[in-house]
Q: What sequence folds into this?
């Protein structure tokens, strides 16, 4: 093999001239993290709402929430992303669609990817929230209502705090998934980590270094998230349960 | 309001069907290789050989921490470079091959975790019983533990297969014309991207939703 290893390539000025290739990687990392975190906020809020709706004693509401979850679970992420990016602007009222198409391409890509990842993950979060609530003893709901809480108050003060703590481990894997899934945004051109890996291969002809560096960055993201979530898990353990102290 | 025009779809059906064949080829290869290789990895992780267990764990953790898109790109952009260095420049169009390898090796990591949980769900008494009957440990695994483990985890394996079927659309990043890639190309060619994307979405939904209903039924039968 006559491959010329050159780790110094990262310090060379990049093709655009105003940055190094290492700088490109950090730009990619920045977009990956920003995209994942903002999508996670959407996923958590929307997912919790639909997860709760699936457990309420109203057939219409829970049926609606079931449809939502099934729709987002059974269409590939890539198709969803392309739908937000290419289809939605066409179907919006003309003025809004044109405004979207004329805005900064980077923000178009980011906005579509954030919406897509957020809602895709929200369906999965909804399933976790539902199973968390359903895993609680039925007496908890009854007790809440018997204390004179309204149904929303029962959810707010009794059911949700318990179930979030129970579902924290599976939520951690969803949180990790969102970082991994954010790589799909490369297909619409967002300059996140995977895109930067491809660009580095194109510009530097040092594919091994580029891919090793980006792979290591994904591994570091994983390790960091796991570390933080384990600390959070320890903090919110419920005494008296198997996982508790 | 957008003017829908669905007329480019009927003519594209043969192309789309061809794409679906590629999608299925990747899916089925990845399921078969993934389950076989995943079983070996799971056994290695649970076995007494510390080195093998560590290696298997490292493999699984590596593939599970990296996005599928990156893995597809590895096997398309990186591995061929190595192969070229060994076999010379003539390796032809490797898109399908690299996708098959990438999916098989990637899915093995996910299947291995499901299978490991399945094996661990079989009670210890079964192993002792197998050994007491005079089976070797390998025979006990093959004839006693694995059949029960696979029975317990069939629904999970099928659910993973549905996710895998959806994920194969990511071969888009290396330009392979699977079902989704074909739909995109046709839409782009005819200026009917909106219709083709919606059509692809509906087809995926119908297939995956029906499959997941079947899995749910199966699960209910197993639970009895």
A:
């Amino acid at each position: 093999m006559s491959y010329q290893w050159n780790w110094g390539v990262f310090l060379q000025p990049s093709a655009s001239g105003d940055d190094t290739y290492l700088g490109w990687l950090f730009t990619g990392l920045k977009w990956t993290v920003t995209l994942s975190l903002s999508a996670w906020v959407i996923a958590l809020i929307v997912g919790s709402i639909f997860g709760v709706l699936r457990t309420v004693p109203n057939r219409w509401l829970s049926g609606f929430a079931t449809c939502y979850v099934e729709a987002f679970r059974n269409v590939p992420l890539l198709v969803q992303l392309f739908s937000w990016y290419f289809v939605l602007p066409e179907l919006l009222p003309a003025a809004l669609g044109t405004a979207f198409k004329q805005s900064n391409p980077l923000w178009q890509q980011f906005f579509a990817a954030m919406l897509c990842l957020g809602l895709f993950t929200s369906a999965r979060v909804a399933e976790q929230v539902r199973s968390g609530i359903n895993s609680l003893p039925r007496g908890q709901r009854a007790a809440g209502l018997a204390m004179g809480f309204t149904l929303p108050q029962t959810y707010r003060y009794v059911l949700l705090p318990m179930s979030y703590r129970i579902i924290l481990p599976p939520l951690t894997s969803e949180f990790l998934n969102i970082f991994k899934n954010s790589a799909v945004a490369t297909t619409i051109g967002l300059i996140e980590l995977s895109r930067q890996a491809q660009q580095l291969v194109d510009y530097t002809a040092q594919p091994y270094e580029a891919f090793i560096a980006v792979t290591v960055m994904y591994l570091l993201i994983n390790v960091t998230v796991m570390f933080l979530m384990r600390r959070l898990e320890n903090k919110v353990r419920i005494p008296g349960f198997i996982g508790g102290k | 309001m957008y003017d829908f025009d669905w007329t480019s779809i009927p003519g594209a059906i043969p192309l789309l069907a061809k794409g679906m064949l590629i999608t299925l080829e990747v899916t089925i290869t990845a399921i078969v290789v993934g389950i076989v290789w995943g079983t070996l990895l799971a056994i290695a992780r649970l076995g007494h050989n510390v080195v093998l267990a560590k290696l298997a764990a490292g493999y699984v953790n590596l593939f599970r921490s990296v996005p599928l898109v990156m893995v597809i790109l590895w096997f398309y952009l990186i591995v061929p470079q190595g192969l070229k260095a060994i076999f010379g420049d003539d390796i032809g169009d490797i898109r399908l091959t690299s996708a098959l390898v990438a999916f098989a090796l990637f899915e093995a990591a996910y299947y291995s975790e499901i299978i490991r949980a399945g094996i661990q769900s079989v009670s210890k008494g079964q192993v002792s019983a197998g050994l007491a009957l005079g089976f070797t440990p390998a025979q006990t695994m093959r004839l006693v533990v694995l059949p029960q483990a696979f029975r317990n985890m069939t629904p999970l394996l099928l659910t993973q297969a549905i996710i895998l079927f959806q994920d194969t659309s990511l071969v888009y990043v290396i330009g392979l014309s699977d079902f989704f890639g074909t739909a995109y190309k046709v839409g782009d060619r005819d200026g009917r991207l909106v219709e083709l994307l919606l059509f692809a979405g509906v087809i995926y939904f119908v297939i995956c939703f029906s499959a997941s209903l079947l899995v749910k039924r199966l699960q209910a039968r197993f639970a009895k």
